[in-house]
Write a structure and sequence with these properties.
Structural class: mainly alpha
Number of helices: 15
Radius of gyration: 23 Å
Largest sheet: 3 strands, antiparallel
Helix content: 40-55%
Shape: globular
Strand order of the largest sheet: 1-2-3
Number of strands: 3
Mean pLDDT: 85
Distance between the termini: 89 Å
Length: 306
């Protein structure tokens, strides 16, 4: 009885901080930061009202110096954790259900071209973490793995098949879906630059990979609390590219695969999407896809004379 009463009296920041302790989540960390700026008294969850949600969303949009996309991201995160509070019987219904969420603006970020990837690959990111961020980003361009999956990628998730091809097989952190991704020559080269003996032995050295770096493929990325987006932004600026982010790498992999003839369903499975409609966002009419679509139409029996 006392434990139930204690749970019902939890403050929002207390509840969010407990969840932050269970996972590495930059979005949740930033949400807590903006909540502290908005409401110093730290509202008890059971006292949060739809009006309070509206006021917090207004704060995110107009007083927190955020883009509309970031405001939408933090508003959505708050909704997610209020629903978890319902699951934990802290509240019976989420007050956010009665308030329209901040709509996420349509992304205008573009995938990288092959020329842009080549330009980036020639530019060094300073520092040990910077070097690992560069390799992880380029590996994502080859595989479509999210930053959350790159952080927890271990050598034991890389397998050799009978034909000696290498595959990443893992459960996605975000969706819980299993993905199996064959590694291209470019992806294998990146792995060789990290641990050549592992790759050349056919990815069968899991048992020997204990030690200071654990068994993570990108150990610094796995352990850092630094916001690595800053590395990507500065890297992109040096290359004269304004849209370099972790999602850019995933977007790039999907678009390049589709432009070079991969089936939409196959790309969807590689990315671990539950619905093909999600993958369609990456296929959104690049010039190359438009040309391919038009060129696929057979010559029409048209008499151009008057």
């Amino acid at each position: 009885m006392f434990e139930k009463l204690f749970c019902r009296n939890k403050t929002l920041i207390e509840f969010l901080s407990e969840n932050l302790g269970l996972q590495k989540n930059c979005t949740l960390s930033r949400l807590i930061f903006y909540l502290r700026k908005f409401e110093e008294s730290d509202m008890k969850i059971r006292k949060i009202t739809p009006k309070w949600i509206e006021e917090f969303q207004f704060f995110l949009l107009y007083n927190a110096n955020l883009s509309k996309g970031s405001a939408s991201l933090y508003s959505s995160a708050l909704r997610k954790y209020l629903h978890l509070a319902v699951r934990d019987s802290i509240i019976s219904k989420s007050p956010a259900d009665f308030v329209k969420n901040i709509p996420m603006p349509e992304s205008k970020k573009l995938p990288l071209s092959l020329a842009e990837i080549k330009r980036l690959s020639r530019i060094k990111i300073p520092g040990k973490l910077g070097g690992e961020v560069k390799k992880a980003f380029l590996f994502s361009c080859c595989t479509g793995l999210r930053i959350s999956d790159l952080r927890e990628l271990t050598w034991s998730m890389i397998h050799a098949e009978g034909d000696k091809s290498l595959w990443v097989r893992k459960i996605q952190k975000k969706t819980g879906r299993a993905v199996a991704i064959p590694l291209s020559e470019s992806a294998v080269r990146i792995l060789k630059s990290i641990k050549i003996d592992f790759v050349e032995a056919g990815a069968r050295l899991h048992e020997s990979l204990s030690g200071s770096d654990g068994c993570y493929v990108f150990p610094l990325l796995a352990s850092t609390k630094t916001n690595t987006d800053q590395y990507l932004k500065k890297w992109g600026e040096k290359a004269g590219i304004q849209h370099v982010s972790w999602h850019t790498a995933r977007h790039t992999m999907a678009t390049l695969a589709l432009e070079n003839g991969a089936e939409l369903k196959t790309v969807s499975e590689l990315l671990g999407h539950s619905q093909i409609s999600t993958t369609l966002r990456y296929a959104k009419s690049t010039d190359k896809l438009k040309k391919a679509a038009v060129n696929s139409i057979p010559a029409l029996p048209i008499d151009s004379g008057e």
